[in-house]
Amino acid sequence: METRILLQPAYLLHRAPFQNTSFLVDFFTYDYGRIRAVAKGARREKSKYRSLLQPFQPLLISMSGRGEVKTVNGIETSLSAIVLKRERLFSGLYVNELLTRLLNNYQEHTVLYKNYQETLINLQSNQEIEVVLRRFELNLLAGLGYGINLEEDAHSQLPIEPESNYRFTPDMGFELSDTDSRTNANPSVFSGRVLIALRKFELHDKAVAKSAKLLLRQALTFHLGDKPINSRALFSSFI
């Protein structure tokens, strides 16, 4: 049975050349989550779609098709694209790559869609990049059902204490550890002070921000697998 999707709010996550003149595209949509589609002829210089198939551009898309991969029938927009530059551009590309890699097709993520929009707006502003990215990463993991509990010890259910150290296991959470996080003997051990700061998004201290980044990287790598994030290599010092 053919599926028709009309004027669905969406953002382009990724595009790649397809056949001679088309693009194979991944959209993040409000009602359907991630959708893969073919934009026929979009690589032609005179294509009406070519200028719209850009990252961070709010779109209304129409598609149809019987299989997993749809065909784009229409693309509209009435809003200006979100403009990101330098490190904020690469941070936005990093966010797009995470969504492309982790979202399954046709699974609704309306809350995460709103989180994504807020992330792009915040990246366009003068908000601290570290805070914006860590907030999105936590929201992404929670939206996928892998939320990190920064409130309590997973084993004892006691509250996280700032003076204690905790070992992080991605599929379990935090457990009290005898290892001192300052020795770097175990990169999976974090101080309670870092966990509480991340919970409050108080990442002004460089050491705390670095530890929070390491923690989220471990959590995401568990689900991403061994394949590296390409956008991270472009501007690794900012994510």
Structure, described:
The chain is of the alpha+beta class and 239 residues long. The strands form 2 sheets. Strands 1-2-3-5-4 form a 5-stranded mixed barrel. The chain has a 3-stranded antiparallel β-sheet with strand order 7-6-8. It folds into 2 domains: 3-76, Beta Barrel (OB fold (Dihydrolipoamide Acetyltransferase, E2P)); 86-238, Recombination protein O, C-terminal domain (de novo design (two linked rop proteins), Up-down Bundle), CATH 1.20.1440.120. Residues 235-239 have low confidence and may be disordered. It has helices spanning 86-102, 110-124, 129-143, 192-200, 206-224, 230-234; strands at 3-18, 22-29, 33-39, 59-65, 70-76, 165-169, 173-177, 189-191. Helix 2 (110-124) runs antiparallel to helix 3 and helix 3 (129-143) runs parallel beside helix 5.
Task: Please give the structural blueprint.
Elements: E1 3-18, E2 22-29, E3 33-39, E4 59-65, E5 70-76, H1 86-102, H2 110-124, H3 129-143, E6 165-169, E7 173-177, E8 189-191, H4 192-200, H5 206-224, H6 230-234
Parallel strand pairs: 3-5
Antiparallel strand pairs: 1-2, 1-4, 2-3, 4-5, 6-7, 6-8
Task: Please outline what is shown here.
It contains six helices and eight strands.
Compute the gyration radius: what is it?
A: 20 Å
Total individual domains = 2
* Sheet having the most strands: 5 strands, mixed, barrel
User: If classified by CATH, what would the architecture of the largest domain be?
Assistant: Up-down Bundle
CATH class placement of the largest domain: Mainly Alpha
The best one-word shape is elongated
Q: Considering DSSP H and I runs of 4 or more, what fraction of the residues is helical?
A: 25-40%
The beta-strand count equals: 8
CATH superfamily of the largest domain: Recombination protein O, C-terminal domain
Helix-and-strand structural type: alpha+beta
Q: Give the ordered list of helices and strands.
A: EEEEEHHHEEEHHH
